[in-house]
Design brief:
CATH superfamily of the largest domain: Outer membrane efflux proteins (OEP)
Structural class: alpha+beta
Radius of gyration: 37 Å
Oligomer: single chain
Order of helices and strands: HHHHEEHHEEHHEEHH
Helix content: 55-70%
CATH class of the largest domain: Mainly Alpha
Shape: elongated
CATH topology of the largest domain: Outer membrane efflux proteins (OEP)
Largest sheet: 4 strands, antiparallel
Strand content: 5-15%
């Protein structure tokens, strides 16, 4: 074969190898509204997108930042997600290597009777190329593209895991901080009720009150002690959850600062007589940065789980190309070049060198519907991936909308509960004074105590919900990782 013909043949092979049956990929239209529901905060010119705010900037407390960094280093789920990237990258490299020939050194020896009483020997040594599939119709290329998309999806999965981990550590840390405040509040309430029970016993022993008042005081004190035990258990559970997230026992210096308790005694106008009012601890200052919501279209490019779902869709789309190529001939080449001789001593002598070339083409004619079923399966897998991609978008839209709804209402709820807590504290003080002056019954005091404690608990829980809602909004917008 002359050189021009060889060049033309190589160009033809290259052109055929570029053939691909992968359907053209088009990103499905997002099945959500163009705006999030409810009133939107006014846009600020030049404001950083929520997804572009690094978690170090979002979290304002140095202790929590150090704890998140420790979790990113030690958390096993994140470590598995990172190792999955390495595994899928290796799978992609395997698919890529399938497009190239595998060449090795082969040696063989064969001795057998020749039918005349003698032995015929044949020895060979050389380079061997075994069944290299020439990708004329893009089957291997399609599989490589599918593997590449899976590799990119694994990277997005690792980013989504990092976002979830940052949010989980922050939420659990805030929950631990709130439980510390609730524990301090409960301890203060138990102390107040113990004192109230002591005074009730003195009055009962002096015949100033009935047994009913004493039993009611005992019941209320026991309820506070029960709440104290429950609060200690909840704090221990938060600490256990934080230990799992961080991957080790959290250092004491990285835990929330113990709450500050204000004075618990309020002087009255009755001279030396005072009324002990259970007080809530001073709430910790907000440590989280406000994040702008942006538009739903931003989620398509910033949410790691949506990007992961899209890469999985691209992979499923590429698998259709491989399934289509299976209907066309599969051409493979086996070749070897080396030396052969009837004796070991003659292997490398002149005249013993040669080569073999064995191309093979296999066109499927009857396979009992295997290729058709494989194509149908690939099409169905692509449709499933589309539905999963759309569901990922809808889930992200709902999570952002929920967080925005919380931002719009939790502030008003918190302000109202703060007013209620102040009113209940004053109500308790006045009920205690009226009881001591014989104007009201002890039942009014007990009811005021119970209502004040309940209101103070609800206030702390709402404050926690507001902070965790900020974390949820940051997570829903795709924050917590950087390119």
């Amino acid at each position: 074969m002359n050189p021009p013909r060889i060049v033309l043949t190589l160009l033809a092979v290259a052109a055929l190898s570029a053939c691909s049956f992968i359907p053209k990929y088009e990103r499905p239209e997002a099945p959500v509204a163009s705006q999030f529901p409810g009133p939107q905060p006014a846009a600020v010119a030049g404001a950083t997108s929520g997804a572009d705010i690094a978690w170090q900037e979002f979290i304002g407390d140095a202790r929590l930042r150090d704890l998140v960094a420790l979790a990113l280093k030690n958390n096993r789920d994140l470590r598995v997600a990172t190792l999955n990237i390495e595994q899928v990258r290796a799978q992609y490299q395997i698919r890529r290597a399938d497009q190239f020939p595998t060449i090795g050194i082969g040696a063989s020896g064969n001795r057998q009777p020749n039918g005349t009483g003698g032995i015929t020997s044949l020895y060979s040594v050389g380079l061997a190329l075994s069944s290299w599939e020439i990708d004329f119709f893009g089957r291997l290329g399609s599989l490589k593209e599918a593997a590449l998309a899976q590799y990119l999806a694994s990277e997005e999965a690792q980013r989504a895991a990092q976002t979830s981990l940052v949010a989980a550590v922050a939420s659990t840390w805030l929950s631990l901080q709130a439980n510390d405040e609730l524990l301090a509040l409960t301890e203060s309430t138990v102390a107040t009720r113990d004192e109230s029970l002591r005074l009730s016993k003195l009055r009962f022993d002096a015949g100033a009150t009935s047994a009913l008042d004493l039993r009611q005081a005992e019941s209320l004190t026991a309820a506070a002690q029960s709440a104290l035990a429950q609060q200690r258990r909840l704090r221990a559970l938060d600490l256990n959850a934080l230990t799992l997230l961080v991957g080790q026992t959290p250092p004491a210096e990285l835990l929330p600062v113990p709450p500050t308790m204000p004075a618990t005694v309020v002087a009255t106008t009755t001279g030396a007589e005072v009324v002990a009012v259970p007080t809530a601890p001073v709430p910790a200052a907000s440590m989280l940065r406000e994040v702008p919501a942006g538009l739903p279209s931003d989620l398509l490019t910033r949410r790691a789980d949506i990007r992961q779902a899209e890469q999985q869709l691209i992979s499923a789309n590429a698998n259709i190309g491989a399934a289509r190529a299976a209907f066309f001939p599969r051409i493979s080449l086996t070749a070897s070049a080396g030396t052969a001789s009837s004796s070991l001593s003659g292997l490398f002598k002149d005249g013993s060198w040669g080569f073999t070339l064995a191309p093979q083409a296999l066109l499927p004619i009857f396979d009992a519907g295997r290729n058709r079923a494989n194509l149908d399966s690939s099409n169905a897998a692509r449709d499933i991936a589309i539905a999963q991609y759309e569901k990922a978008i809808q889930t992200a839209f709902r999570e952002v909308a929920d967080a925005l709804a919380g931002s719009a209402t939790l502030g008003d709820q918190l302000s109202a509960q703060e007013l209620q807590a102040r009113a209940e504290a004053e109500r308790f003080r006045l009920a205690e004074l009226r009881y001591r002056n014989g104007v009201a019954s002890f039942l009014d005091v007990l009811d005021a105590q119970r209502s004040l404690f309940t209101t103070q608990q609800a206030l702390a829980q709402t404050r926690l919900a507001q902070q965790q809602n900020q974390v949820n909004l940051y997570k829903a917008l795709g924050g917590g990782w950087k390119e």
